[in-house]
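Structure ticket #2291
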Amino acid sequence: MREQQLILLVDDEDPFRVAVRRLLETHYEVHEAADGARALELAGRLEPDLVLLDIGLPDTSGMEILTRLKAMRPSPVVVMVTAFEQVRDVVTAMRRGAFDYLVKPVDLDEFELTIQHAMEHASLKNEVDRLKKELHRLQGVDHLIGKNQAFLDAQMLAVKSARSPDAGVLLQGESGVGKELFARLIHAQSPRASFAFVALNCAAFSSEIIESELFGYEKGAFTGARAEGKAGLLESAHKGTLFLDEVADLSLEIQAKLLRVLELNEFYPLGATRKRNVNLRVVAACNKDLWAETDRGTFRKDLFFRLATIKIQLPPLRERPEDILPLARFFVEQFNDKYHKQFRTFSRDAEQILLNHPWPGNVRELKNAIERVVLLENDELIGLNHLGFMESSGGSPSPATPAPFQWDLPDQGLPLEQMENQLIQAAYEKCGRNKSKTARYLSIPRHVLLYRLKKHGLMN
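Resolution: structure written out below.
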């Protein structure tokens, strides 16, 4: 945060700029521009709190510059300056977002009062923006956009479940539906909201790494351990919420240790002889049927009952067609702010593409698609030409569902590790030993592929 508020003075008259700078530079950081192009360049780089903007500039209209300034994110407070009062110009400027105006020759008392009021307004605006960002960070509610009934029911159940500080919540749904956002909502609405929210993706690491991340370790606990030891996520989440994403990927050994934590509120870091007490809530998430995993023997039933006191099923985006366009518009505004763009709406053809797309990646895929358009293009209307990268469009058939693998399984069993090794090696060779292509081909994150390539000795 800068020490002084910053004012950008835009006027083509040198004597006026010199006089105003002398009045302001005691209390503010002042920068100058003699034309509109320089003004926009400085405003984009410096993000001024206030712009004093002359209506008559040599290269463009001050009104045009005003419009461009108000479209910036964050947008500065703007006070217009004119050589003589014209009602039409003043009304137009105020409608376009100007805070106030001054008439040359400027009365000193009026000038000081206008600057004071404008800076107070700028301070208030900055504080409101900061509080909004903090509120959104804590709650994540701005992302939970939708009027689909199943989605609204899931939100209501999440808010109700948050009232208990301890009840386990299991979030189930496909990848990309927003399970972590729901977990953050539960945390933010709970009595634990003032403490930490800690997240771990259980599918992203090996069992050994997961164990050390969760429980932490004492110095010398294992080869490669930090000399000073490390606090685990259980300890970091004390009094707060621990979010376990893709919980079905936990090994049975770690499941047993986690169950003990939930039953006794205590654990031992790796290599430790003294137990640690912990008080936290666990919210778990899974993109498969966790109860079915208990029937298969890959997930403990006793742990399931601990984690799933309340089960919330999140619908995929393809079952929420009424929410697709509101979400798309929200993401447009979000990325307009991030990339300083001015997209306003979608053409009808573009809307039809969005509505007809199957969205296998759900809300995450929609968000990424909108970010790509806003980042790469510079228009006000998102049209058909901007969405050509999407494989499925209105009137085009969706890609056919791939046929399931046909396995000829031997009666005596088979070595899973060897099968995984052969499958990954075949995919790696098929993709020309390109790691990114192989990860996409296998539909797994790149870091997971890298771990498995190392595990099976397939990396160069």
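Closing remark: The domain at 149-313 is CATH 3.40.50.300 (Rossmann fold).
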